[in-house]
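Onboarding guide, step 5: your first structure request.
Type a short instruction followed by the sequence, for example:

Predict the 3D structure of this protein.
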Amino acid sequence: MILRKFQRGTLSRVVLRHEMSFSSVVVPTQPVPPLAQTLQRYLTALEPLLPPDEIQHTRKMVQQFGKPGGLGQQLQEGLEKRSRHSNNWIADWWVQWAHLESRQPLPVHSNPAISLPRRDYNGWRSQLVFASKLITAVLDFKAKINRGQLPVELMRGKPLCMELYPLLFSSCRIPGPKHDYIVHHGKTRRSPTHITVVRNYQFFQLDVYNSDGSRMTESQILGQLLRIRSQSWKTDKEPMGILTSEHRHTWGAAYNRLIKDKLNKESVQVIEKGLFSLCLDSPVMRISDEKYASRKAAQILHGGGTFSNSGNRWFDKTLQFVVGEDGSWGLLYEQATAEGPPISMLLDHILEYCEQPDPKRAPLVPLPMPKKLYFHIDRDIKRDIEHAKQNLDILINDLDVNVFNFKRFGKELPKQHNLSPNAFIQVALQLAYYRVHNEVCPACDIATQRMFRGGRTEFIRSPTNQTLKFILAFDDPEVSREAKLQLLREAVDAYTALTQKALMGQGIDRHLLGLKLQGIEEGLSIPKIFMDTAYGLATHWKLRTGQVPANTDSVMCFGPLVPDGYAICYNPQADHVHFSITAFNCCEETHAETLALTLKDTLCHLQELLQPTV
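The system replies with structure tokens like these:
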């Protein structure tokens, strides 16, 4: 069964959970926003970013596009017709355009990683004990999905679409010459009953269900992991997983060469069909305690390089759990059928499950040896691996990762002043960026569209006019504290209003994309508003941001969208906030540590504004 690809969403939301069968959840279809509304909001979004003369030029172009009987109205009618004949008018287009046709490597550029608090152990035996617990926790989560017992997520009392959950398991992205596609084996006649375990670059097929269909116990799985360890001592094995880190066109060509061999094809299919992958990593390279959190997040994101654990990844796989010998652990996921909220619920379940005492040991019945996967590596595949190793190390060395825990305050501070915590942090990010670069920049935060059937994500744009006014006033000693407070409130409220619109399906970016793609579908030339320099500037996202609310001190990490940009993820807790900031070293203008230090300083100044000490 082949599915179209879906996009990840790290979202701004308040989600409650309700005990009901998610198979019975009914949510409305996603609306097509009014054309005039989107065009007006698009112009408003450009105002903080462009000088007046350029805005005027773009305004004339937008007015021409949106006039009655014009091209915009024609494309709008096409979208409305599409909406009437599909579950979701934009989801398939979005994922095809934004992801399946993207040719960039999956590590750093696409796959997000979540780094969890270090477990209290150090050593390979405890690593395997925890890994066996984690596996049984994930299988327990899957059983709840299969039985329809997963709590339904609610937002403002309304259920969210739960279609993604059954697709998390036994899914994999497949590289193609021009675009990728997704395979999902979870609902085939003979659903997979195995996971893939990889250690020291060596892959194993591990069945996790007994012959009678029951799930294996922790003790059974631990015994099998011990067997895998005994068969995977460090050797000169080629790191096959490195191939999946390549440029998608390059990996697609190598993939076709690889699977021409019957043995290779069988091994690759085992990995693709597995419920998920478990990566048993060697310890994170430690330089200092201060940099450990950054190193840990980076290792989960890309493996740390070809001399570290990057060969323990299969980046095309939807779910990869990483468990290190030093207590480091986390999750790496491919965006095809996974996004922030389902992953968050999965991790919450794992953490709750891990607090439970070990169940009684099952009777020790003979189990077959885990199957080691072998590959036939000819001269061409060897060359492909060497090129992939070089390219991945270049990419990893180019990525600057800075993870820190801001401890002065958390989301309770803005709440005490009736300010949205997410909007407050977004304004702080723009202020910090301005202090470093002396300009504001296009930024995209992610809002969920899962209030609608098949809904994925929408961008929340910043800065707003109100944010720009606040930024320009904040460091001006001539502006009173009371005036600055009022401007801060207006900036936060303006961003909160944009968030509400986006959550209700009234954002502008997916609509603009739909209009553009509708024109292509009708065989028309790309409308001029999308060829305008203003559109290019406004979609050059120098700040890629994502709030990842979770019940634990986790932090998400991914790379910037553009070479001269940043990616910033944050997880606000009651009295602290976890941040990750990434930038590319090849860009002389961007520096993750500089922005991190400025952000800390900025947050302290905002606290002083809200709660003056004098």
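Each response can be followed by summary notes, for example: The radius of gyration is 25 Å.
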